[in-house]
Every structure is written in C-alpha cells, then in structure tokens.
Amino acid sequence: QLHDWNPWMARRLGLAPDGRSGPRSLRDILGDQASRLDALMVRTLADQRPAGADFALTRRGAGTLWLQLVLNPLPGNLMQGIVNDVTEQKQAEAHAIAMAERDALTGLLNRRGIEHRLGDALRALDGQSLALMLLDLDGFKQVNDTLGHEAGDRVLATVARQLESVVRRTDLVARPGGDEFVVVLQSLETVDTARFIAAKIVSTLSRPIDLGDGQRAQIGASIGIAYTESRQDSGDALMRRADEAMYEAKRAGKSQYRFAS
Q1: Using one digit for the tens of pLDDT, what is the confidence trace for 66-84?
Q2: Could you say which of 145, 179, 213, 243 is catalytic?
Q3: Is 179 a catalytic residue?
Q4: Could you tell me which residues come within 8 angstroms of residue 224 by beta carbon, excluding any fewer than 6 positions away?
Q5: Is the pTM of this model over 0.85?
Q6: CB–CB of 14/57 below 8 Å?
C-alpha cells in the first residue's frame, strides 16, 4: 500500500496530490506487472538492502510511461520507494535497437532485424502458415559495372519500395546484404497466397527502372520459397531451404520462383 507520495508521483500515477484519498495499492496501479512487484518486495526484505526494477504503464492516449522503482528496507517490514521517470531513456534505447536492425540504404530490416522478426513469426504460428522468400536480383552486377555503384544503390532503393508495395502490411521485407532481399509472408491460410505474391514480385521487378538522366536499368528476380506450418521450424532451416530453391530458379532460367521441397 502507498501511504504517502509527493506531487510529482501524484501527477505521474494519477494519485490525489495530497494523499487525502487514503492509501492506494501499488499492485493495482501496476496491473499485470504486480507479480514482478511482489518479487521485488520479497527480495528487498529478504536481503535487507535496496533493489530496483523498471515498470511500463500504458496511459490512455499518452503512450507508455516507464518508471524505475527502487525499494529501500525500513524497520518493521516497511519500505521506502523512490520512483524515477525513465521514459525518454527507454525510448532512446528502443530507437537505438530499431536503428541497429535497419539497412541504412533502403530502410528495410537488415540481417539481424529479419532474423529477430522471423523467430517471433515462427513462435506465433497458430493454425496458419508462413512463407519465407529469398530473392536474388538478376542482372544487378551488370548495372553496377555499366552504370556505376550510385545507380546500383538507386536500383536497390527502388526494389525495396516495389517489394513493400506488393506485399501485405502484415508481411516483412528485409535486405540482408548485397542484392539479396527477404520477404516473410505471415498468417497465410493457403500456399496459393504465397504463389500469387511471388508471381507478382517477379512481374514487378522485371519492368525497367527509371534512374533519371535518361538512364534505365533492366533487372529481374529469382525467388526461392520455403513454406511451413510448423512452429518447430527454425529460421536458419527456412533460409537454407529458400536458398536452395532460389538457385533452382536461377538454373531454370532466372526471373522466376521455385518452392523448396
């Protein structure tokens, strides 16, 4: 129970500014995180030394408020708590993590980012399926060799936007590196959706890309697709299967897609 608090804490937690409403339960304020508070209190009293933890509070229409709570043991099984608002710090940390998982050129997820999200997508499978597409651009080396690396960068950025326009909003698009792209189609009901999107990607990327200054680039995409309905599949295994299928598409004449067996 909270017995006393200052105006700052009253504003942050929506408490009466002078405590006139009587004791309030911190467990009620923290809601689903109450068990973590219990563990923190037990540790503080058992060790008889300060202990702290961070808690996230969702405020209606105001985003998430992050509070750092430090408890100090007092005689008689009482505790004194110090609360700091660490929202800006948490937001900065989240932004840094997000930037570390993004490709600087295209703004897409990078290798680290797609590995992270793919793992989450596999764990979330529940009665539906997932398809991982590995794309390798056909003719990209010729663009770099004849038009230069700046033109190559413009092609990569254009391909990124084209892929985002073709897939659904729930899907993931990444550039692990070079001229390879990864698309993860989530929450599929049938394999036909993956087949339709793969065909659309092949068709879209086969069109000439206007680079400006009268320059145009002609590329294509060979796509390997690994399809799964199992949470037990690993991201690495899907990548390997999609990679093998992608090379089958290249051997078959490029600018087409193949499903992994």
Answers
A1: 999 999 999 988 899 898 9
A2: 179
A3: yes
A4: 133, 134, 241, 242, 243, 244, 245, 246, 247, 248, 249, 257, 258, 259, 260
A5: no
A6: no
